[in-house]
């Protein structure tokens, strides 16, 4: 168990380092540099700016400095938002994304798991087919389509829900729905197939042969086994949802990290892009790690590894 | 309990009944079920699957509209018609109206026009072409890279396999969406520079963004395929029938052809089919963020993205590409599910 | 009155049971007219190849028939219960309590995410009023009973931490937790090593002597039934083709299938030139069973009548009977002789 965890932690650190390196190289590969787009800057001014941001030093040296600083959570200054550090922007924007994402994660778990179990129980019936059609739609329809359709009908046509910002609970409804549609559908499908799988297992027959009621054999014996695949999916799912979907934040103008990332890309804010990428990657990798640890607790068989 | 042998007394029996039966008589009773091959059996199951067949037809229809219809369509995707900006479906501009009154026959703008006066129907068709191309080319790239990498790892075994899989593990945990956005952003400029060089002009014909999308897929998305191929081959390598075939003196080539391929191919088809919608999904996502194909080339994602600002007045400009892309992704997903049920039932869970 | 009815003399009394699985491809007649009785404490072996209906028969006793199977005829009595019209709730009262089952594969029959102790105590607490501590005590007792040492430690372990033989012992402990009247063992040793097989069988016989429950032993291994069972039912294609005491079956088999089975057992005392004789052919397609004897296409002594009509039951003693036309042949010849004589007179 300890060895397994150690291996996972090492892998996580390597992954984060790989992401940081790839990001750094990519950003430095782009010809022209960050100040190219701003015209009317004299060569002298460019040189001064490059000196300020340390861009005049050789590549290797910059890389070492950057990684060293990044280890302390220092991603440098934003190139476009003058005077603000990348970390201060991230720490201001991330909680907004996390709040919307957290609600979406809860919603998708609370809907996806019971609906999947229900569909498995009603397999072959109209209820099952209806749910499976909904789940397939939820997986197939891209989030920008869901967002825009929601916005058009509930925001524009009916005027029921506000379309911009995050000022009241009503503002949460559409972004959360759009964010939760995919994971809910995915969890539902996962839960249904794993439940069907578990219901056909020999130990479920044993539970019946013991004389256990359907309720106990379902909640005690089936659910705990069937939920294992959902837990594996939970890691990436929570990570992606919490950091905020780029699309959802863009469409509903939510001041979150996803929107900030897109803004940085469009504005060629190199330090911001690097910082956000490394932050998000670290966050996701840590989520994966936590889920892995939770998994070893829920499934005793893992401990042998 | 007393002995009771009731039946023999009740039934009328003839002495011939107790004569031995011939082998022919015995065989006539054994109804053997027809044994069917892998492909025929799978195709039969696929044909029975109404949902999958409907999706196949939908995909074929969309393909006809995306690849064949534009070549003889009266408008082109980049042609701007004077004064025909923001027309409603089946509406004509004043200039066109005059020409029709002069006796000219004009093809209607089925979906209207966009704000630059381009026929929207042809733009949606071209957008579907791009989306389908991206999906299928990406799936092929992934199939090739993934299966080569996976089979090398599986056949090499030992520390080579271990190291190769460690790389896969790392790529697997890298958050793909982030890196895709980053890569397509970073690759834009170098590719543009490359395209201006001699011999690389074809790059700009395809569009630098489109190429960078393919590069991104080729760099990141093959890992799932590689894992699947490796595990399939490892499983087969250790399976008893391959050992048996080897023991019977079958050559390596025959084993690969007869056993490995027939057993892997179902899985490969299914994963490739399911890869298409996920690539289309990613492309539309990138296009929507403005990182997709270059103007004036449309893709379904960029069409939707452009239309979002006019959502109040021209909602159809948003809904048409949205519906088409949802339809494409849905159909490929359901077809993939159908293929899986037909050719690879063990993948079901 | 009731005490005098035949039903109560027997622990199990199955009469003309018919059971079918209604699959999309059609009705699969899994059981066709199965009848047998068992006294308390009796050990019955049910022998047959896969798909012959051995397990289906036993499962229907507990109401565990898998979907889409349905009982469509006959009566089943068990320990005074009319199984035919029992509800699921009533079944729950007797399952694990009056009748228990051990499954074939101990690897998959225990829930991997709960400890052994949890799974044993569960059934104890379900059917008795014992509290948690008492149930744990009883579980420890049971583990000792099935020959597991260090029960205290084992209770806290998960199934994957135990060996196959150990897990099957745990399954037996679960089955015996409430001292059932009947223990159904569904190929309990098939998935185990040969040396472990013997241990488990020995344990089962030992426990029967100690606790006095009846056992239904389902197996395709004639060797197992020979050493354990008092009565043997040979099943083929959803029918009991021969039933009798172990001696009847082994020394006086009257059905061609039984004879085939016995010939296919390797024997230590075989002479040099004797060879194992396999039964040629494949089992019948249960979707479209033939009109006549289901074994006819594979039978070496098949007669014309066998292909047309299902043979009637021939009794050789109170307990030994078979369904085979060959046994009717002699009688028919004798009968037609007497008929002829009668006509002559």
Spell out the blueprint of helices and strands.
The complex is a heterotrimer of chains A (305), B (349) and C (345).
Chain A: H1 2-29, H2 43-52, H3 59-71, H4 86-121, H5 126-140, H6 143-157, H7 169-199, H8 202-209, H9 214-226, H10 228-242, H11 246-251, H12 257-266, H13 270-298
Helix pairs in contact in A: 1-13, 4-5, 4-7, 4-10, 5-7, 6-7, 7-9, 7-10, 8-9, 10-13, 12-13
Chain B: H1 6-10, H2 23-29, H3 38-48, H4 50-68, H5 94-101, H6 120-156, H7 158-173, H8 176-195, H9 201-206, H10 208-220, H11 222-238, H12 240-247, H13 252-288, H14 300-307, H15 315-343
Helix pairs in contact in B: 3-15, 4-6, 4-15, 6-7, 6-10, 6-11, 6-13, 6-14, 6-15, 7-11, 8-10, 11-13, 13-14, 13-15, 14-15
Chain C: E1 12-23, E2 26-38, E3 43-47, H1 54-62, E4 69-78, E5 81-82, H2 88-94, E6 99-102, H3 106-109, H4 116-127, H5 132-145, H6 151-155, H7 164-176, E7 182-186, H8 194-211, E8 214-219, H9 222-228, E9 231-236, E10 239-245, H10 246-251, H11 256-263, H12 304-308, E11 313-315, E12 321-323, H13 325-344
Parallel strand pairs in C: 3-8, 3-9, 6-7, 7-8
Antiparallel strand pairs in C: 1-2, 1-4, 4-5, 9-10, 10-12, 11-12
Helix pairs in contact in C: 4-5, 5-7, 7-8
Concise overview:
The complex is a heterotrimer of chains A (305), B (349) and C (345). With 349 residues, chain B is an all-alpha fold. In chain B, 69% of the residues lie in helices and 0% in strands.
């Amino acid at each position: 168990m300890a060895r397994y965890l150690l291996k996972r932690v090492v892998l996580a650190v390597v992954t984060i380092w790989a992401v940081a390196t790839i990001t750094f190289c990519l950003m430095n590969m782009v010809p022209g540099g960050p100040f190219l787009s701003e015209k009317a800057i004299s060569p002298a001014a460019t040189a001064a700016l490059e000196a300020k941001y340390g861009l005049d030093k050789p590549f290797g040296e910059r890389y070492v400095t950057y990684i060293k600083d990044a280890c302390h959570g220092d991603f440098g200054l934003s190139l476009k938002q003058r005077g603000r550090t990348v970390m201060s922007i991230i720490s201001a924007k991330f909680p907004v994304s996390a709040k919307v994402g957290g609600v979406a994660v809860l919603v998708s778990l609370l809907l996806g798991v019971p609906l999947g179990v229900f569909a498995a129980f009603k397999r072959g019936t109209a209820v099952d087919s209806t749910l499976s059609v909904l789940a397939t739609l939820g997986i197939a329809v891209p989030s920008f389509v869901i967002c825009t359709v929601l916005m058009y009908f509930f925001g524009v046509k009916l005027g029921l829900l506000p379309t911009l910002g995050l000022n009241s609970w009503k503002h949460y409804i559409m972004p959360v729905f759009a964010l939760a549609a995919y994971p809910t559908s995915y969890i539902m499908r996962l839960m249904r197939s794993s439940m069907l799988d578990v219901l056909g297992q020999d130990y479920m027959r044993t539970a019946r042969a013991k004389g256990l009621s359907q309720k106990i054999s379902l909640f005690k014996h089936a659910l705990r086994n069937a939920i294992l695949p959902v837990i594996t999916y939970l890691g990436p799912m929570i990570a992606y949802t919490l950091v905020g979907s780029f699309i959802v934040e863009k469409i509903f103008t939510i001041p979150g990290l996803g929107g900030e990332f897109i803004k940085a890309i469009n504005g060629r804010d190199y330090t911001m892009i690097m910082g956000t990428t490394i932050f998000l990657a670290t966050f996701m990798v840590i989520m994966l790690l936590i889920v892995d640890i939770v998994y070893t607790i829920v499934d005793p068989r893992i401990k042998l590894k | 309990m007393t002995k009771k042998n009731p039946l023999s007394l009740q039934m009328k029996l003839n002495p011939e009944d107790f004569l031995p039966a011939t082998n022919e008589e015995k065989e006539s009773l054994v109804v053997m079920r027809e044994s069917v091959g892998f492909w025929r059996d799978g195709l039969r199951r696929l044909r029975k699957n109404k949902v999958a067949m409907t999706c196949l037809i939908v995909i074929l229809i969309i393909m006809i509209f995306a690849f064949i219809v534009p070549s003889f369509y009266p408008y082109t995707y980049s042609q701007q018609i004077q004064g025909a900006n923001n027309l409603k479906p089946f509406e004509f501009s004043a200039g066109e109206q005059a020409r029709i009154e002069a006796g000219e026959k004009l093809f209607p703008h089925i979906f209207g026009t966009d704000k630059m006066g381009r026929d929207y129907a042809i733009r949606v068709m071209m957008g579907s072409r791009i989306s389908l191309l991206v999906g299928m080319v990406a799936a092929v790239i992934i199939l090739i890279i993934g299966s080569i990498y996976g089979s090398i790892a599986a056949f090499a075994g030992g520390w080579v396999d271990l190291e190769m899989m460690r790389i896969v593990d790392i790529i697997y945990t890298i958050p793909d969406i982030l890196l895709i956005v980053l890569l397509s952003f970073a690759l834009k400029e170098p590719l543009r520079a490359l395209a201006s060089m001699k011999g690389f002009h074809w790059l700009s014909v395809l569009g630098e963004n489109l190429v960078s999308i393919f590069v991104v897929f080729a760099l990141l998305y093959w890992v799932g395929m590689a894992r699947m191929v490796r595990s399939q081959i490892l499983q087969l390598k250790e399976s008893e029938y391959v050992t048996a075939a080897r023991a019977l003196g079958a050559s390596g080539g025959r084993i690969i052809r007869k056993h490995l391929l027939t057993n892997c191919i179902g899985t490969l088809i299914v994963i490739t089919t399911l890869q298409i919608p996920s690539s289309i999904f990613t492309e539309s996502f990138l296009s929507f963020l403005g990182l997709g194909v270059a103007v004036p080339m449309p893709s379904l994602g960029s069409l939707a993205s452009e239309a979002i600002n006019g959502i109040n007045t021209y909602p159809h400009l948003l809904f048409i590409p949205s519906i088409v892309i949802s339809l494409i992704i849905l159909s490929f997903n359901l077809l993939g599910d159908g293929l899986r049920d037909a050719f690879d039932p063990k993948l079901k869970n | 009155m009731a005490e005098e009815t035949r039903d109560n003399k027997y622990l199990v009394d199955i009469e003309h049971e018919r059971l079918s699985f209604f699959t999309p491809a059609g009705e699969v007649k899994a059981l066709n007219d199965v009848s047998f009785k068992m006294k308390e404490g009796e050990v019955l072996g049910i022998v047959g190849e896969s798909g012959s209906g051995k397990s289906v028969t036993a499962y229907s006793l507990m109401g565990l028939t898998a979907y889409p199977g349905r009982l469509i005829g006959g009566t089943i009595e068990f320990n005074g219960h009319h199984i035919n019209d029992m509800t699921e709730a009533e079944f729950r009262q007797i399952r694990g309590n009056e009748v228990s089952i051990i499954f074939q594969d101990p690897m998959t029959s225990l829930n991997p995410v709960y400890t052994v102790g949890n799974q044993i105590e569960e059934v104890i607490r379900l059917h008795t009023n014992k509290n948690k501590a008492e149930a744990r005590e009883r579980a420890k007792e049971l583990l000792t009973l099935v020959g597991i040492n260090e029960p205290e430690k084992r209770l806290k372990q998960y199934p994957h931490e135990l060996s196959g033989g150990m897990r099957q012992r745990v399954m037996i402990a679960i089955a015996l937790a409430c001292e059932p009247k009947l223990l159904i063992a569904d190929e309990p040793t098939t998935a185990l090593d040969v040396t472990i097989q013997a241990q488990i069988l020995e344990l089962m016989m030992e426990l029967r002597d100690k606790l006095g429950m009846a056992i239904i032993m389902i197996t395709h291994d004639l060797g197992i039934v020979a050493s354990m069972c008092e009565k043997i039912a040979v099943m083929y294609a959803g029918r009991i083709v021969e039933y009798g005491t172990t001696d009847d079956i082994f020394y006086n088999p009257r059905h061609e299938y039984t004879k085939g089975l016995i010939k296919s057992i390797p024997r230590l005392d075989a002479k040099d030139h004797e060879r194992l004789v396999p039964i040629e052919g494949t089992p019948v397609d249960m979707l479209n069973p033939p009109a006549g004897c289901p074994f006819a296409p594979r039978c070496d002594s098949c007669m014309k009548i066998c292909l047309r009509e299902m043979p009637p039951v021939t009794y050789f003693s109170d307990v030994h009977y078979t369904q085979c036309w060959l046994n009717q042949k002699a009688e028919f010849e004798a009968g037609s002789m007497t008929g002829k004589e009668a006509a002559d007179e």
